[in-house]
Amino acid sequence: MEQLAQLHQYGDIALFILRVTVATVFIVHGIWKIENAKQMANSLGISKFGWLCTALGVAEFLGSLALLSGFLTQIAAAGLGIIMLGAIYFKITKWNVKFTAHDKTGWEFDLVILGVCMAIFLLGAGKIALDNTIFGLY
Question: What tens digit of pLDDT does each residue of 86-104 get?
Fold first, then answer.
């Protein structure tokens, strides 16, 4: 147990790993939304609002860059968390997707990403971040 307790000293590295992991997911999904906004809008039944899907993709992409760099990290985590709340809401109410689904992605993945965004929001970026360098938050 003593060895495990010593791992707390690596909390800043753990926050960095969480930021990079979530940022990677949002970069991939954000770019896809930007490139396929019209297709996504049609599949959601909001074909007149393709611009909204583009805006969502841009928000995901910029938020992920903020997480990667650790710049305005808590604001970015809050914004990305709100996006995930919207995704969960949409999956549950509009698509009737179960928590887990074997034939498609359930909303369990979205819940994990939301949880990580909440943790980053509450804990901040850690020492390995521009927030620390610019604002001296740690």
Answer: 999 989 998 898 999 777 7
Q: Which residue has the tokens 């990079």?
A: 20
Work out the end-to-end distance of the chain between its first and last CA atoms, rounded to an integer number of angstroms. 28
Give per-residue pLDDT as tens, 54-70: 999 999 999 999 999 99
Angle subtended by helix axes 50-69 and 37-44, to nearest 10: 120
Nearest of 7, 21, 45, 41 to residue 117 by alpha carbon: 21
Domain boundaries, the chain: 10-133
pLDDT band at 137 (very low <50, low <70, confident <90, very high): confident
Q: Taking the mean position of all CA atoms in its chain, how far away is CA 128?
A: 19
77 contact partners, CB below 8 Å, separation of at least 6: 63, 67, 117, 118, 120, 121
Helical spans, DSSP H, in 1-137: 2-5, 11-35, 37-44, 50-69, 73-93, 108-123, 130-135
